[in-house]
Amino acid sequence: MPTPSPPDKAGQLTKLYARLGVAADSNDAAVVSDMFDDAIQMCLDYTGRANLTAPILIQAKRLAIVMYNQQADEGEIERIEGSVTRTFETGIPASIRSSLAPYRVGKVRGFS
Predict the structure, then answer these.
(1) Global pTM?
(2) Which of 24, 31, 39, 81 is a Cys-bridge partner for 63, taking CB atoms 3.0 to 4.6 Å apart?
(3) How far apart are CA 35 and CA 58, in angstroms?
(4) How far is residue 42's CA from residue 25's CA, in Å, rounded to a whole number?
(5) 3-state DSSP helix/strand/coil percent for the chain, to nearest 5?
């Protein structure tokens, strides 16, 4: 059985810069890269895995986009402006969690 190739973190980071409209040599690139690292760790923690796989890396990219877009709203859970109410999801959004669910590692529990 052939060994799977390692996930392309640099390639996904380049795609992340493009999706967010951030130049790779700008000050924002360092922020995006840091958020991407945080998103990767959050996805690994959620799945219970120590090694990164391509599907988890893609979901981490999606999570980094959410994190980047919520920068100015950090800490807010809900905002009401006139008749408009905005509610923010905390942690990993449900759509990303559902995509990560198949990659979660089960934990063995003792019998009672």
Answers:
(1) 0.81
(2) 39
(3) 14
(4) 25
(5) 55, 5, 40
